[in-house]
Write a structure and sequence with these properties.
Layout (H helix, E strand, L loop, with lengths): L6 H22 L4 H36 L5 H14 L1
Helix pairs in contact: 1-2, 2-3
């Protein structure tokens, strides 16, 4: 199965990449722990949202494919849940 990731998701990941560069810049500038951790929390939240979007979009595709093949979609849903839990 081939996955297609849309431009919105790629833009989101580029924004996260920029946030990580910003965290490194804060560290190079010797900024406070509070500022660094605050920005890292923003990176983590943005990353969590990207993960959720990827799983949700691909879950829909996997369910449709499983249904077309006459299979049981319960396993597909369980795998998606495990991916989300694992990512936390």
């Amino acid at each position: 199965m081939e996955y297609n990731y849309n431009e919105d998701l790629k833009r989101r990941l580029r924004r996260i990449e920029g946030q990580v560069r910003g965290v490194l810049r804060l560290m190079d500038e010797g900024k406070s722990c509070k500022e660094v951790v605050s920005q890292l929390s923003a990176v983590r939240n943005a990353s969590d949202r990207a993960i959720a979007q990827i799983v949700a979009e691909n879950l829909q595709q996997c369910i449709l494919e499983e249904q077309a093949a006459g299979g049981n979609t319960d396993k597909v849903v369980q795998e998606a849940i495990e991916l989300l839990v694992k990512s936390r």
